[in-house]
Design a protein that fits this description.
Length: 221
């Protein structure tokens, strides 16, 4: 079994294990989040790999051929390994971002606010942006939050009322922080992607020079 096959099999087994664990715990929301993240990461990695600058991709393809135009299996294998490294680097970038983001979501869902109520909160804001708290009461969000807080944290009625007031009062700040976090995450992904491209470009250029010297040496013999 090759290293690539072992890597793919390991990733598959980890994914299946995570899905089985989430389903066994009745965590349907987290299962859907995991599936969505895996699909999104797969699509992003392939798109970003295939959408690299055409000049760079063409240079990598040209490296697969000798100066006389014949295809070299060894050179093709090296270029394929370089492209797989780009994909693995991108997977590492996105998985790190997903891990951090998921950790924050778990912390929020466990300690601050049940994420299953997020849809109701968004709908309440659409109902009445100017009287947000009334819209929340109309959609029974306060009542649902009360039940969640009582069952999860064993809080008293006065504590829950204070938590509710603090939560709705800080909602705009939390939304701003979430937006800032998303922007920062995208900026980090962009920086990491550009660094990966530079590394790939340096490798392609080095192999081009190596192959050119090798082919010229053969012609001089």
């Amino acid at each position: 079994m090759t290293a690539d096959m072992r890597f793919a099999l390991t990733r598959l087994l980890l994914t299946v294990s995570a899905i089985a664990l989430l389903l066994s715990l009745g965590l349907g929301f987290w299962f859907m989040l995991l599936v969505t993240q895996i699909i999104a990461i797969s699509v992003c990695v392939e798109v970003m790999t295939q959408r690299m600058p055409p000049k760079l991709l063409n240079a990598s393809r040209d490296n697969c051929r000798r100066m006389d135009g014949t295809l070299s299996g060894r050179r093709s294998a090296r270029e394929q390994r370089a492209l797989r490294k780009v994909r693995s680097d991108l997977w590492a970038i996105f998985l790190t971002a997903a891990l951090v983001g998921s950790g924050l979501l778990v912390a929020i869902d466990t300690c601050l606010f049940p994420l299953k109520l997020t849809g109701d909160v968004a709908a309440a804001f659409q109902d009445s942006p100017n009287d947000f708290k009334t819209a929340l009461r109309n959609r029974s969000v306060d009542e649902k939050f009360f039940r969640w807080s009582r069952s999860s944290h064993r809080s008293t009625n006065s504590q829950i009322r204070q938590q509710t007031e603090n939560l709705w009062g800080a909602a705009p700040i939390m939304a701003g922080l979430a937006a800032a976090g998303v922007v920062a995450c995208l900026a980090l992904i962009r920086f990491s992607y550009l660094r990966t491209l530079r590394e790939f470009q340096s490798g392609v250029s080095a192999r081009t020079s190596e192959y050119l010297n090798l082919d010229l040496g053969r012609l001089e013999r």
